[in-house]
Each structure stands twice: as C-alpha cells, then as structure tokens.
Write a structure and sequence with these properties.
The structure is a single chain. It contains two helices and ten strands, in the order H-E-E-E-H-E-E-E-E-E-E-E. It is mainly β and 199 residues long. The strands form two sheets. Strands 1, 2, 3, 4, 6, 7 and 9 form a seven-stranded antiparallel β-sheet that branches. It has a three-stranded antiparallel β-sheet with strand order 8-5-10, with no helix packed on it.
Length: 199
Amino acid sequence: LLVSGAIILLCMTIIVGVTVGLFTDSKTIRNHLQAGDLKATLTRTYLEYNTLDAVGRLEVQKVEGEFDFSNASTNNVFGVDSSNLLLIPGSYFKADMKIANTGNVAFTYNIGIQLIGKSNALAEQLQVTVTHPDGTATTKMLSELTQGLTIDSGELLKGAAAQNFTVEIRFVDKSTENNVAQDQLAEFDLVVTAVQSTK
C-alpha cells in the first residue's frame, strides 16, 4: 500500500511538472481602421464687377486668382463686404466658381442661392443669372428667390473633375423704380450642401 501511494504521488509530481513546463506564446494583431475624408471645396476662380469708383463713376474691376470659400465664411463671393462696394443702375458682379471633391469619399451635392429675409425695392431690381456646368443659363430676379434657386446638383466621385458655374448679379435699370431702391440692402446666401454618396 505504501509503495502504491508513493507511485501515485510520483505520477502526480510528473504531471504537475509537465504542466508547468509547457512552452507558451501569444500574439497581438493591431487592426487599423481609418475613416474616409469627405471634403467638398468651393473656390472662386475669377471676379469681375462694375461699381462706383472713388469719384462716383462706374468702373470695371477684375480680380484674378483663386479665393477659397471651402470653410464656413462671412466673406462675400463678390467681395462686397471687404470693399464696401455700392451698386447703382448698371452695376454688376460676376463670379466664376468651381466645386471639387478633394477628399476620398464620393458625395452628392446641391448648390443654391436664397434671399435672406423679405424682398425689397433693391431685390426687385437685382437680376441673378446662373450659368450651369452644362452651359445653360437661368435668370431670375433676386426678389423671386425667397424659396431659393438651385444652381447645380450632382455627384462628384473621388478624383472626378471639378464642376464650374458662374453667378452674375446685375442692377437692372428700371427708370421708374430706381429712386425707390436707393439706400436699400439686399442679402442672399450661396449655400453648398455635400452628402456622402450611397450608390
């Protein structure tokens, strides 16, 4: 009986010794997941305007070079904020714009113009002409845009060519209404919305 007990004890010692002596190994695999970048850029590529000069006469000015409006901004597409440019009958502002996909996520987009607040005598004399990317043009009075005007909508895939469009605002000479528009202020927004494409 003592011999059997000693053999059992020896066997248990061997089993414990084998269990403790096993080789072990572990691996950690680090996973990398990165979100895509939806980035729509809006750029003014050219600006031309005809407003009052220092002595009160109409003068045509041209602004070459690009100006980036991609981030939310209070800057005016026509440069009116920074220059205190004033309009009279015959004045106009013309801006060539482009929207591009500079990220890596395809998106659908919508570009529009909307009158802020109520129409007034000046908004009734400001004619808005939009030349769409396909070359067609739409003309409306700013006073008609309380519900907005769609300039363009579409889809821009990663690496796709930019879409170009032009916005022109012209003070239409209505001789019987010109004086009513003096000292009036008309404000409008150029709104660009981009949403991830789900196709």
